[in-house]
Amino acid sequence: MSELYKKLETCLASVREKTDFKPEVALILGSGLGDYADEIKIETTIDYTDIEGFPTSTVAGHKGRFVFGYVGEVPVVIMQGRVHYYEGYPMTDVVLPTRLMGMMGAKKLILTNAAGGANPDYKPGDFMMITDHITTGIPSPLIGANIDELGVRFPDMSEVYSRRLQDVIRKCADKCGISLQEGVYVQFTGPNYETPAEVRLAQRWGGDAVGMSTACEAMAARHMGLEVCGISCITNMAAGISKEELNHKEVQETADRVAKSFKELITEIVVNM
Q1: What local confidence, expressed as pLDDT, does residue 30 receive?
Q2: Which candidate, 50, 47, 53, places its Cα nearest to that of 10?
Q3: Domain extents for the chain?
Q4: Which of 42, 90, 105, 114 could pair with 31 as two cysteines, CB 3.0-4.6 Å apart?
Q5: Distance CA 110, CA 218 (A)
Q6: According to the model, what pLDDT value does residue 35 have?
């Protein structure tokens, strides 16, 4: 048994000392969506600091706890605050929470984030369903000895984002009256925003949005067989498209402005997955 798997088992045992709740769906909440977890029917919560060996987020607006409960009749576990690679954690720690939620019993994963729009047809406040991703700018979470208990050494990534769930998202957005963009998400390391040259590179690669999370978590989830979908909230136009200086305050303000619609969409998706 690998050291990474032992660490996961230690975290799981720590969670199981506090709850035996078994989720069907896992959600990771990005900037501006954090308080969504406060609005569900909560069964229990566990602070990350109360889980032995668990990494904790240092980013403002990311609370740092698991929320267990129900969206409609669906049992869910929600990460209220994620861990980012730019915080200095090894990539295996960044994706540890994703793997842990899978080990708790979740079979489906909804990823959300705040992202910069690299597609000039986008505007701040748009929602982009992720159809694929590019992770060339970050190390793969699967580098190193394979965790055989989770998945195979060379996992297929031809459908990271489930086509079935993409259809669900389209129908849910239509029902909610929400206009939905569709595109490719490019993950960079952060914490700095991308340069205009990096954004042009992302565009030439075929990217529509850029950000600092999500794709690594999606890879780890697919490795262990979870069905994955993702939605980016375009909170700003990326460098070189926008002439304004980029800052986290703008990201947070845009995310807050569209949070009501985003929450409505997420709820609709969860109950129809």
Answers
A1: 87
A2: 53
A3: 3-272
A4: 114
A5: 9
A6: 86
Check if 213 is active-site.
yes
- 86 among known catalytic residues: yes
Which segments of the chain have a pLDDT < 50? Answer: none
Whether domain 3-272 has CATH 3.20.20.30: no
pTM, full prediction: 0.95
- DSSP-assigned letters across all residues of 63-130: --EEEEEEETTEEEEEEES---GGGT--HHHHSHHHHHHHHHT--EEEEEEEEEE-STT--TT-EEEE
Q: Answer whether 135's CB lies under 8 Å from 223's CB.
A: no
Active-site annotation holds for 212: yes
Residue 133 among the catalytic residues: no
Active-site hit among 57, 113, 213, 232: 213
Q: What is the pLDDT of residues 140-162, one digit of tens each?
A: 999 999 999 999 999 999 999 99
Number of residues that this document lists for the chain: 273
Nearest to 66 by CA among 20, 109, 97: 97
